[in-house]
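Tokens for chain A. Residues wanted.
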């Protein structure tokens, strides 16, 4: 099992920035691709960003591309999501997820999930 714990969410004004963190334990972090997903009230969970085990491959949804950056620090077993130029439509619970080696953009591909952290962007 892998345990994932997110932090860094909060309330921010439109145009502002937040950095989410997700600390992993229980597995060899450097073997796992990491993803960030988000879920707004009444909507399905959607893909936001992903990073491969070796940081050589990234993918972003069109809605966050150019504004969000995913990165990882394997020495700290941590993945980050830097979110800039936030918009009210970015308001959601953000979830960290892990799967072995290679990235995918579908939630069903990730066996390990954190509990989520709330991000609220006011207009």
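Reply:
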């Amino acid at each position: 099992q892998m345990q994932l714990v997110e932090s860094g969410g909060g309330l921010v004004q439109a145009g502002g920035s937040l950095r989410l963190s997700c600390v992993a334990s229980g597995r060899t972090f450097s073997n796992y691709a990491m993803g960030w997903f988000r879920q707004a009230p009444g909507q399905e969970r959607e893909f936001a960003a992903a990073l491969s085990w070796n940081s050589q491959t990234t993918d972003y949804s069109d809605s966050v591309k150019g504004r969000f950056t995913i990165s990882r620090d394997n020495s700290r077993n941590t993945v980050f999501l830097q979110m800039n130029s936030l918009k009210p439509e970015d308001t959601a619970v953000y979830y960290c997820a892990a799967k072995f080696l290679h990235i995918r953009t579908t939630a069903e591909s990730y066996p390990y999930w954190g509990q989520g952290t709330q991000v609220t962007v006011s207009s």
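The first strand starts at residue 3 and ends at 7. The chain has a mean pLDDT of 97.
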